[in-house]
Fold:
Amino acid sequence: MPDSKRQKILIITRNLPPLVGGMERLNWHMADELSSYAEVKVIGPDRSAAHKPTNVELAEAPLKPLPLFLLVSFLKGLGITLRWRPDVVMAGSGLTAPAVWLLSKLCGAKSAAYLHGFDITADHRVYRALWRPTFKRLDKVIVNSTPTRDLALAAGVSAGDISIVYPGVTLPTAPQPESSIKAFRQQHGLEEKKILLSVGRLTTRKGLREFVEQSLPAIVRAEPSTMLVVVGEAPKNSLGAGIQSVESIQAQANRSGVGKHIRFLGVITDPVLLATAYEAADVHVFPVRHIADDPEGFGMVAIEAAAHGLPTVAFATGGVVDAVSDGLSGCLVANEDYLSFAISTLDIISGDTYRQYSERAIVFSKQFAWSKMGKNVFASLIK
Structure:
């Protein structure tokens, strides 16, 4: 793209595929899209080189233990910055912000970070004392939502140094064939079922166990054909996230009398199969809980669902308010109002509103293309 001298950008992150999660997808796509505008090198966790974007160079550091990752990624970053002289050194999350800031000072580069929410509020004494103060020293802080911007301001970051750049989504070029959707339903015993789809890691913040206890029974009573289909598993390498195991969620379903109304499909990494799951479902449920020191930074799965014409019902917390347009791509419900959550879900799966929501959701999702996200990140970095 640009001029005769392409910018050089070094990204340091612990969140990349094959690890599974929204931050991992975001960092991968951010590096990929930035490579259209600049030369990009990345330092990521071990095994990530095999999954790197085509036009990106990637060096690895051990994922665990965490101190070893931080040490090795810094040392590799030091070698790269002194030899390569990047124009920008960027942290893929707040975790690597101190290393990025120091490396930028050593090589005269601009420092930046993409912050997600939890990496600002993490309730850890050492992190709050040593990591959080770094954010206000960075030249540029990019955040994923309006609520995350407020968290950055509360951490002392100057308003003029903050840009909001929403995460992206891979927009489908065409809907999945009806034959694929029918086969998916048959494979999982979902013929003639009303499918509530949940996609994501099974953490405390995601609140699936509470939804199963407090909303699902009311939905099943009103619509006995309801089936909650869960795509995801408890994270194994997530920093600071409490988990909800499949066993604990199933046990709660059994206690609540809806044990036969839930299916666990595990993680789906095949994009075609995941697209089929979205398009086979009747509604996406996203019962994220409001937890002060563990906010939902955005909610990429709500945009992914919208891109496939699937409306979302969610609590109005954190960055979810930017990821779900109330009345357009789904319904936002007051925090912890599980009865209203059930009513909104039933309104979509039982009434004539699904088609209207589906059409509007697809239109809403188009503003979140990964290409637009990459363009906006690059524009923020070179300001």
